[in-house]
Specification:
Layout: H1 2-32, E1 35-38, E2 47-50, H2 65-71, E3 75-82, E4 86-91, H3 95-101, E5 106-111, E6 115-123, E7 129-133, H4 134-137, E8 142-146, E9 152-161, E10 166-170, E11 192-197, E12 205-216, E13 230-233, E14 245-248, E15 253-261, E16 270-275, H5 276-289, E17 299-303, H6 304-308, E18 325-330, H7 335-339, E19 346-350, E20 353-354, H8 358-365, E21 373-380, E22 383-390, E23 411-415, H9 418-424, E24 430-435, H10 439-443, E25 450-454, E26 457-458, H11 462-473, E27 479-485, E28 491-497
Amino acid sequence: MKKVINVLLFSLTLICCCILASVITTNLVSKKNSKIIYVSNDNAPYTTLSQSALSSAKMQPVDLTEAAEKTVHGVVHIKSTVKSRTQTYQEIPDIFEQFMFGARPRQRQYRTEPQVGYGSGVILTKDGYIVTNNHVIEKADEIQVTLNDNRVFIATVIGADSNTDLALIKIDGDEFPVVPMGNSDDLRLGEWVLAVGNPFNLTSSVTAGVVSAKSRNIGIYQGGESIESFIQTDAAINMGNSGGALVNVRGELVGINAALESPTGTYAGYGFAIPTTIVKKVVADLREYGTVQRAMLGIEGDNVISMRQDERNKNVDFGDAIDGVYIIGLSDGGGAFAAGIKQGDIITEINGKKVKTMNELQETIVQYRPGDKVTVTLLRDKKEKKIEVELKNSRGNTEIVKEADMEVLGAVFQDVPAETRRALNIGYGMQVGTVKNGLLKDAGIQRGFIILKINNRQIRSIDDIEQIYKEASSSPDQVLFISGVYTNGRRANYAVSLSEE
């Protein structure tokens, strides 16, 4: 009996060993022929390769050191200073004082406190052109730029644009390190990016993250002509990063860091950058004209997907469209109206580039100038049509908006935005877009001031300013009496002497 049990145990052990050997052999064969899915570090698409084809280099994580080293020298620290100055305002007595005592308006003076702000900028050219955010240098009397090698320069403002929150400044010199311009259209969700800047005055700081979203609108800029189409990233951005660089793994500029969204005012997960598709056009215009040549399609629209979700639009026939911009209205005299585009059309492409939202449409149109022609692809009655549209400016024509920059005055003048005209109920005027060193700054005129009259004559164009300036320069008095209003509604009067004495 004992022998039988031993034989059985031996047989059972032999069977188990055979089964185990079979399983091991099967697993080895299976592993040898298995497939592995991975993401390469050279921005290639998701790839399926056999185990034998994998190299040790492909299995390494994305290396960001080269991109950081290439760009950190081209990102600068900016210190903007608003000096203390004496302001004069007119104090209007109340009705009781006027009635009982015959009180009249009287002049009052007060002295403002100096203000200092910090931010970042990106060197675009070897001869010292630097792009930054408009809010970094706005109202600054002095702009100090510090390079990564600790050289310090005083910068001058070439031009600024509040609608895109971009500004172009310049420092004197040559052979400065630059950050090469990339194409933000090529960015993909999940792609690695670096934020380079000076958060909390910690110079030359680099943080890493991925592209979280594109064409994002977060509603931080006020005004109907403001453009928001941000790159959203989880690379840490804090106060002081404004105007700094967002770069890809190749060290190419793909955005200008502009904002963060946080309940505390510090980084809490997401930052936002202005894409280079906008930056390139704005910088080129500021450098060439001193002001942005803004092209307009001349439509009022909304996202199809948003309108579909609104119960008030249940009777609107969108057809099969899910993406695109539904045209709610058209501007009289605008390019779209002149080309035959109609209310109810759904725009899906501009020059072959797909347009899914109003943000994307704005980002695309802002790359063109008045007079440029674009092909608009749209859906009408569920059928696709292509219409050529000549883009126009805010005046409804294709002329280049000139820059009036009388050197002695030290200012750049621009048209008053339509929304500002409506809010202030004014029908004419020219706005001070940029204030440099000159007579207007000495008189206390600040950026944003709207000139309504000079020497008691209404100002409706840059030509009016130039004509009155020429007349006053050759007159015995040589004085400009300027009256106007700030965007907050405060009216002000200034006397500017053109005499060199």
